[in-house]
Amino acid sequence: MIATEPPPTLTTNIVTPPPPPPVTAIAPPIIETHNATVHFGKEIGVQDLTFAVQPGTIFGLIGPSGSGKTTTVRMLAGLYKPSQGEVLVLNETPSKFKAATRERISYMPQLFVLYPQLSVWENLSFVASLYGLPLFRRNTKLNELLDFVELREHKRKLGTELSGGMRKRLAVAAALVNDPELIFADEPTAGIDPVLRAKFWDKFRQLREQGRTLFVTTQYVGEAAYCDVVGVMQNGRLIELDTPQNLRRKALGGEVIQLVVDVEHQRDAMRLLDAHPAVNQVLRSRERGQLLVYTDDAATTLPLLMTTLNEDSGVQVKTINKYEPPFDDIFVNLMREDGDHV
């Protein structure tokens, strides 16, 4: 009998593919409007508003007085019913909010209703009682809010003793009593000084970092830079909707580089820059030797311009940097463009 060896065992290295990356669910918008219009008789408050607000963002609505900002907020809060179109807030029609849904929302109107003969603490405690905040939790909660708006040391002051800024801060505290998920703030910084306005926006950013969503209207156009998304209103219509940076680019036709050269060679610098393929336009500023260069991408173009100017030994570049004009100028440009399209 001939002995045979068993056949070799074949081994196969099976490579197990890595598991697919987890699918990150995209949260639905917290606010949605589709062609929403509000009529007041023959007058139009707002017309054909279509936009969405994502959770955990600051949405800023800017525009001149009478442009429809307050009407928009009141429609979203359920105080006005749209004459046409659809509005959803927290996936419900605002005019039909359930009680539980209303408790997730806070509305800070332009004029805070204050009881002048009650103290700061008593005013805030009254608001807490409207939300049914239990007494055993109230002290801790109210002190936390007063610390947040920097009013704790003034909590015994009567309403008649409060400055305009203090009243605004008390209004913010009152708007946070119910731990809202969504905060509507209509002109919250109107009539207060720039330093306090900056503090307000610091507080708003803190709230956003806590996961809250803020819908803020303002006439102070410069405050648009503090928002994640900005809607620009004019005559009841939403004429622009984008991030502050993209609105800058649209209004300016790109980005701007500001540079200062020696006055003797300013014309030479303009000639060299204007001929560069990455430059859309070169303008002379009012300041001596200063030029504004318009380009699609400042970060990419800036070093190219330095190379171009350095190759000409006669041009001395004193300073060069990306320039962001005030948002007031951006707003004016956007308004002008919208007027041209009418």
Structural write-up:
With 342 residues, the protein is α/β, with parallel strands linked by helices. The protein has two domains: 31-248, P-loop containing nucleotide triphosphate hydrolases (Rossmann fold, 3-Layer(aba) Sandwich), CATH 3.40.50; 253-326, 2-Layer Sandwich (Alpha-Beta Plaits). Helix content is 33%, strand content 25%. The protein contains ten helices and 13 strands. The strands form three sheets. A six-stranded mixed sheet has the order 5-6-7-3-8-9, sandwiched between helices. Strands 11-12-10-13 form a four-stranded antiparallel sheet. A hairpin with a 5-residue loop joins strand 11 and strand 12. Helix 7 (244-252) crosses helix 10 (327-341). The longest helix is centred in the middle third of the chain and has 16 residues, at 194-209.
Total strand segments = 13
How many structural domains?
Answer: 2
Instruction: Assign an overall shape.
Output: elongated
What is the CA-based Rg, rounded?
28 Å
* Euclidean distance between termini CA atoms: 104 Å
The biggest beta sheet is recorded as: 6 strands, mixed
β content, as a range?
15-25%
The CATH architecture of the largest domain would be 3-Layer(aba) Sandwich
Number of discrete helical segments: 10
CATH topology of the largest domain: Rossmann fold
Catalogue the unreliable spans: 8-15
Structural class: alpha/beta
Q: Please, what is the oligomeric state? A: single chain
CATH class of the largest domain: Alpha Beta
The CATH fourth-level homologous superfamily of the largest domain: P-loop containing nucleotide triphosphate hydrolases
Q: Main sheet: which strands, in order across?
A: 5-6-7-3-8-9
